[in-house]
Amino acid sequence: MAPNLVFSIFRLNILILVCIFLSNVNSREVDDTLVFTVATSETDGFLRYQRSAIEYGIKPIVLGLGEDWKGGDNIRYRPGGGWKVNLLRNALEAYKDDTNRIALFTDGYDVMFLSDLSSIIDKFKKTDARILFGAESSCWPDAGLESLYPTVESGKRFLNSGLYIGYVPEIYKLLTYAPLKDENDDQLYFTHAYVDDKLRNQLNFKLDSNSEIFQNLNGALSEVELYQDSEKEYTEFKLKNVVSHTEPLVIHGNGFSKTKLNALGNYLARAWTPEEECRHCRWGHIDLQKTKDAKMPVVLIALFIENPTPFLQEYFLKIGDLEYPKQKIHVLIHNNVKYHVPHVQEFVEGYGSKYLSLKQITPDDVVTESNARDLSLDLCVQKECDFYFSVDSLGHLDNPHTLRLLIEQNRTVVAPLLVRPEKAWSNFWGALTQDGFYARSHDYLDIVYNKKRGLWNVPFINTCYLVNGTLLRKYGRTQLNYVKGNLDADMAFSGNLNDLDVFMYVSNRVEFGHLINAESFDTTRTAPDMYQIFENGRDWAARYIHPEYPEIFNPNKKPLQPCPDVYWAPIVTRQFCNDLIAMMEAFGRWSDGTNEDNRLTGGYEAVPTRDIHMNQVGWEPHWMLFLQKWVRPIQEHIFTGYFHDPPRSLMNFVVRYKPGEQPSLRPHHDSSTYTINIALNEVGKDYEGGGCRFIRYNCSVTDTKAGWLLMHPGRLTHYHEGLLVTKGVRYIMISFVDP
Ligand SMILES: *[C@@H]1O[C@H](CO)[C@@H](O)[C@H](O)[C@H]1NC(C)=O
Ligand SMILES: *[C@@H]1O[C@H](CO)[C@@H](O)[C@H](O)[C@H]1NC(C)=O
Ligand SMILES: *[C@@H]1O[C@H](CO)[C@@H](O)[C@H](O)[C@H]1NC(C)=O
């Protein structure tokens, strides 16, 4: 690494030398240039500004840091204020006679540098102005002054005071041409100077109408584009103004354009480059891996179950499995769903005592979602938490390191990217429409599909996020809460964070987890999660497919064969078996075991059993998918050369063998190409006797295991009978595949 680094620094130096010789800027001029900004606190926007400055070797002088803002209450949409002007005037006082010295002023919360200072100075000198201000398309704050503005040949006509550059003596004159109170509007002050022909000419005061240097974004959103500049030895994203055909060097997300700046800022100033990917991820990153448990930050984890949610037990297991000292975690659970009370109870009994504290808000407490979320913020402050971590029931944290990794990222608000598997549905929005609703950003799919990994500043997050506790204490509940007009709680929270200029980052640096789809979850059914094979296939398989299922495909193992051409393999979990039995018993309408069967097209069954068909419990499509995804591959593996995808099967049913009802089944052939027979409960425990005997081979399988499947050819060779159950109840699941 080292020689490479030396070499590239060497190359960079040559490059800089070449640049300096080519331009009319000398290094003395660059070194002498004063760069100013005003910021009273280190907001996320200010940290971004600073990072961009450091990236290009610019060292701004920050005025006002730590002081109370005195520039009026206009700070949100325009960091306006005469105070800025007055601070700057005082700072320039000492240099006011320095004819050749240049000063650059930018706002601090919504600005980024896109180049080094020598390029900026070079372009400035080419304008022949002594003062150059950025321009914008609207005349603000006094539209009445519009007619006084000189016309322009191209580009923007009106002054914006967020970005300007000039020689110090002229700037100083501009800052002192009239008195200005701290709380008065600085843009108006500068506008009056500009529209005064005499003063403008005297100061050689110009506007950067075509964004040679300064790009004010408001009113120009569609004029700018990112492009990849690969002229240097590394590629970086730069900004191009496609209307003026310029490459602006300083960008200002003024007015309502800050969301756009946030999106551009994910790439600009080398935040993300094709070669190094997320460079700004490393900015401020902390390492907690060696931190002792006792020294870890205190976290309040707030869990919200607002709607019936599939796979909630797994959600809780993943919360419980987070690799983080539980003695540093307070837990608050808001459960709004009666159906989930036992699931919550299970978690509380299993883990509750291990946490620093655990508080529950139950359905009986009748607390609305917004209120519960507000209360959780209060509780965090009350517990003097370092971090607030909110996880809704839809968010599965598959990565047990999620909490630590998010803390280490050291951002005010950061969410782990969660996506519905194989879908483009995630827990963030890349962009907003004018009225604040969902819009897709250019990079949304790249992020969701992990084609680009990094840390993305976005306008909306939900489901799971970490908030630095300092923020909660800084703003209190009146400003930071889950209420905003008629908006949903999550929209309200993101909206309030946007209003406070707090950045919301979403990270996909590693896999963190995924989203559950709860849209069709019907808790009036018995075992409703069993019906989620389509909507939540991954979770369904994790819960219901036997963990040893893949073993049948292990090339080093021979499939088990208890009888000739009868194969035996684990396929579903014990929970699958229990849930399927529960579904059948809750339905309860077992057939009567006679030859008349009006469920069949012919109305006649030659070898009747006591059974319930899958379609009687609304589970036929689910079963067919199960056959296709998990049974068919076994068939293709053991009976090679036969392909039928998807498998067809008209007869899918659960059989109940029971003494006194129907304890056995006489010998018969199945009308299938192959048959599967899944044991749903345990011999010796749930029943005695039972099993399946293949008569031609005089071979019986009696020690069946719950969740294991028997697969055998249907016609001709495998004439078989169901052996007598002598005690208890035996359940099996049968399918006649490809009849
Ligand atoms: C974490 O971020 C804060 C700014 O929010 C910064 O002051 C601090 O230095 C960062 N921590 C580390 C270890 O870099
Ligand atoms: C939370 O944010 C504050 C302010 O940015 C920072 O100083 C502090 O280090 C952060 N807290 C933790 C525990 O990282
Ligand atoms: C079938 O097998 C059983 C036990 O393995 C044996 O007792 C019986 O004699 C066999 N029957 C025939 C017809 O071979």
From TrEMBL:
Cofactors demanded by this protein: L-ascorbate
A Pfam family this chain is assigned to: 2OG-FeII_Oxy
The keyword Ubl conjugation appears for this protein: no
Cellular compartments per GO CC: endoplasmic reticulum
Gene3D superfamilies: q2cbj1_9rhob like domain
Leader peptide range in chain numbering: 1-27
Keywords: Dioxygenase, Glycoprotein, Iron, Metal-binding, Oxidoreductase, Signal
Domain (Fe2OG dioxygenase): residue spans on this chain: 646-739
Gene Ontology molecular function, alphabetical: iron ion binding; L-ascorbic acid binding; procollagen-lysine 5-dioxygenase activity
Family matches, as InterPro entries: Collagen_mod_GT25, GT_PLOD, IPNS-like_FE2OG_OXY, Oxoglu/Fe-dep_dioxygenase_dom, Pro_4_hyd_alph
PANTHER family referenced in this protein's UniProt entry, alphabetically: PROCOLLAGEN-LYSINE,2-OXOGLUTARATE 5-DIOXYGENASE, PROCOLLAGEN-LYSINE,2-OXOGLUTARATE 5-DIOXYGENASE/GLYCOSYLTRANSFERASE 25 FAMILY MEMBER
Name under which the protein is recorded: Fe2OG dioxygenase domain-containing protein
Source species: Pyrocoelia pectoralis
